[in-house]
Specification:
single chain; about 300 residues; alpha/beta; Nitrilase/N-carbamoyl-D-aminoacid amidohydrolase; 6-stranded mixed β-sheet
């Protein structure tokens, strides 16, 4: 399975601009240019480029080089096919612990429509979290959208009380594993990374974990350490997609990476700036290692009690 991991610089409470910028990076990285219809239009992409030129992080050089390469591929008539595109936590607004004015109504319909458009155009599933309002409650919701428009979601279980997220958002109560192109994928959001019991493999019931995050630079060492721990202890691939840039409360340096089932770094984003990482996971290698080193079969049985 081929992945595209987007480490974006998220403009504070600017969903239209953030969607446009993400679309620009996705299509240029995949060699598809910026042409499109509906929610994804070339004019919108040009507007996003002008709006963000003055505020890109130190990864601008890397992104420019990648853009030149993808434009060359496009000119040669080639494109890059991927199976899964992953965006950060609250990728349209930044990590807004005050949902009033930030959370999208109708379960995030506007961003969900955009994700469906991207998935349909690229032929890939698209995953990322959005602050949403639904039936008078607010959720930090990770959507997993397929090219045919079918959507699964996971509501963040462990709300970040240190920043007051738990006072305004409703915690999820379900552990969600989705299936996509032969892979079983556990969906997780940011602070969930600190709670290994919730993510613990149950007899090898998933092959890869996705963590989408707004994890600040001041605590980046735990992010790097725990992401590798989750991969090692669950004998799985771990995908961590974090943002870059600043919001009114914190600074972010990235740390986006694909970690292998032995804890090795397979691919990672350049720090302190926007980046797009193309990488691949190998099911045959994972199965071979699980057969050779069957640690999951020795794990303790347990029952998880979800607090309401």
């Amino acid at each position: 399975m081929k992945l595209l991991l987007l480490q974006t610089d998220i403009r504070w409470l600017a969903p239209d601009e953030n969607r446009r910028r993400a679309g620009e990076i996705i299509f240029r990285t995949l060699g598809q240019g910026t042409e499109g219809t509906g929610a994804i239009r070339a004019a919108e992409m040009a507007e996003a480029t002008q709006a963000t030129q003055a505020t890109r992080g130190t990864g601008e050089t890397e992104m420019a080089e990648k853009t030149e390469k993808t434009e060359a591929a496009e000119a040669a008539g080639t494109t890059r096919a991927v199976d899964l595109i992953v965006l950060p936590e609250m990728f349209t607004t930044g990590f807004a612990t005050e949902p009033q004015g930030a959370a999208e109504p109708d379960g995030g319909a506007a961003t969900l429509d955009w994700m469906r458009s991207v998935a349909a155009r690229t032929g890939a599933a698209v995953a990322g979290s959005v602050a949403v309002e639904e039936r008078g409650r607010f959720y930090n919701r990770l959507y997993f959208v397929r090219p045919d428009g079918v959507c699964d979601h996971y509501d963040k279980r462990h709300l970040f009380s240190f920043a007051g997220e738990n006072a305004r958002y409703t915690a999820g109560t379900e552990r969600v594993v989705v299936e996509w192109r032969g892979w079983r994928i556990l969906l997780q959001v940011c602070y969930d990374l600190r709670f290994p019991v919730f993510a613990r493999s149950r007899g090898g019931d998933y092959d890869m974990i996705i963590y989408v995050a707004s994890w600040p630079t001041v605590r980046i060492h735990p992010w790097n350490t725990l992401l590798r721990a989750r991969a090692i202890e669950n004998l799985c691939y771990a995908v961590g997609v974090n943002r870059t840039g600043d919001d009114p409360f914190a600074s972010y340096s990235g740390g986006t990476a694909l970690i292998g089932f032995k804890g090795e770094t397979i691919a990672e984003a350049a720090p302190n700036g926007e980046d797009a990482v193309l990488c691949e996971v190998d099911m045959e290698a994972l199965r071979a290692f699980r057969t050779k080193f069957p640690a999951l079969a020795d794990a303790d049985d347990f029952q998880l009690k979800i607090k309401n």
